[in-house]
Design a protein that fits this description.
39% helix, mainly alpha, 104 residues, 6% strand, extended, 5 helices
Length: 104
């Protein structure tokens, strides 16, 4: 077994990407059309996401924090239930939000 704490001369490759990421449902908050939200409100999960970190509104600050840490990569997700809250019904405002977010 390798003991990583005993490695004294460990370095990352020069092209190693430092990054961070999160899953939309965990941080965006108030995604009331998500099946996960329904499960939460029915008591199927011990904790409700609620407003979460409000990253849906504050994503620019999240990106600024990642950039301040010199991250070169960021992974996130699209909460499709925001774009299509009901089958066959699409929300242009939500789609525009994600386009703006990924263009940042």
């Amino acid at each position: 077994m390798l003991d990583v704490f005993s490695i004294k001369d460990f370095t990352f490759l020069k092209d190693f990407f430092w990054g961070s990421g999160y899953a939309g449902h965990q941080v965006e908050g108030n995604n009331v059309h998500s099946h996960k939200w329904v499960m939460e409100t029915q008591g199927n999960w011990p904790e409700k996401s609620g407003l979460a970190c409000n990253s849906y509104e504050l994503y620019e600050k999240d990106f600024d924090i990642a950039q301040s840490l010199s991250h070169q990569a960021f992974r996130t997700s699209v909460e499709w239930s925001r774009i299509e809250p009901h089958e066959g019904e699409f929300c242009q405002e939500a789609a525009d939000h994600y386009v703006k977010m990924f263009a940042s």
